[in-house]
UniProtKB/TrEMBL annotation:
Keywords: Ion transport, Transport. Belongs to the V-ATPase F subunit family. InterPro entries: ATPase_V1-cplx_f_g_su (IPR008218), ATPase_V1_fsu_sf (IPR036906). One of its GO terms (molecular function) is proton-transporting ATPase activity, rotational mechanism. This is V-type ATP synthase subunit F. Pfam families: ATP-synt_F (PF01990). The lineage of its organism: Bacteria, Bacillati, Bacillota, Tissierellia, Tissierellales.
Amino acid sequence: MKSVIISADNVTNLGMRLAGITGFVAKNEAEMRRAFKAATIDDTLGVVIITEEVFNTIKDEVTKHKDKGKKPLVVTIPGRKGLEDKDFLMKYIKGSIGIKVD
């Protein structure tokens, strides 16, 4: 299975390309949604990597895909500026299992 990245900047995309992962650079919400939809219907993909900026922009669509539990697996990584939301992991755990972890 292949992996693909959807990023909002060229630097992250270039870094992942050096690791052998192809991807899309999406500059606006419409491009992000189009790239995400194309990636999720591609049967050859096992992992879709999105940057935090892309996740925050199309959060509703990503969450809907994750809730279905279908392939491909969607993974969110920090962008080139690093992790913007420091409580991202805690919010994700609380939303997934319904408890707050200290």
